[in-house]
Specification:
This protein has about 240 residues and is mainly beta. Among the domains are: about 60-80 and about 145-220, no CATH class; about 95-140, no CATH class. It has helices spanning about 1-20, 215-220, 225-230; strands spanning about 70-95, 100, 115, 125-155, 165-175, 175-185, 195-200, 205-210. The protein has a six-stranded mixed beta sheet. A hairpin with a 5-residue loop joins strand 4 and strand 5. It starts with a helix and ends in a 6-residue tail after the last helix.
Length: about 240
Amino acid sequence: MKYLIKLFIITSLIVLTGCVNTATKRDPAYSSVRPVAVPATERHDGAIFDVSKNISFFEDYRARRVGDILTVILEEKTAAEKETETIIIKNNNNSITNPTLFGTTAEFDLPGILPLANTKDNNLAFSLGSTHNFQGGGDSDQSNKLTGDISVSVVEILPNGNMIIRGEKVITINQGNEYIRLSGMISPRDIDANNTISSKRIADAQIAYVGDGPTNDANVVGWLGRFFLSSLMPF
């Protein structure tokens, strides 16, 4: 019976491993927009020139309509550094002498006529002192760099002439996929003669570089490890 259970577990693991889906998962939010087809108009004036089919021979090809394609040169590089230091020192000293009643008298040369306590082991005088020291410091460094290029399409033309662009590039290597996703708003004046634009010129840019597959899963911390690294861990 034990051998049957072990055989069933091993067979189930093999089946589950074979059912792993390695197909690419495109994000619909970064899908391109197809240009609207212009219907052919029937001419009745006898002219042979059609505005919808004109071709300009005296200008550079640059994206200017919905559905046009342009290339974004990724030139992202960021660096941040933060350092903090805190030192707190606090000292407290308090003392009270042995209290007496009715003041002092020179006749008896005593510290008080009626001291509340004056024996060796019974004295109400006391002193209290405390010192608190706190010192803390922190240092944080972070840097990121992303280079390359991605071709995107124009999905919307704004009333002021600016264009909304978005696109996604999927690279499949062995059993893993790499996704580069980009969206944002650009000005047509920033597009150069080669129909390219730097990622530094994109407003409201959203750039994502993610992956999936066994290689990516190997870099993910397990749920138990995330618990010990989270703020829920009391120690």
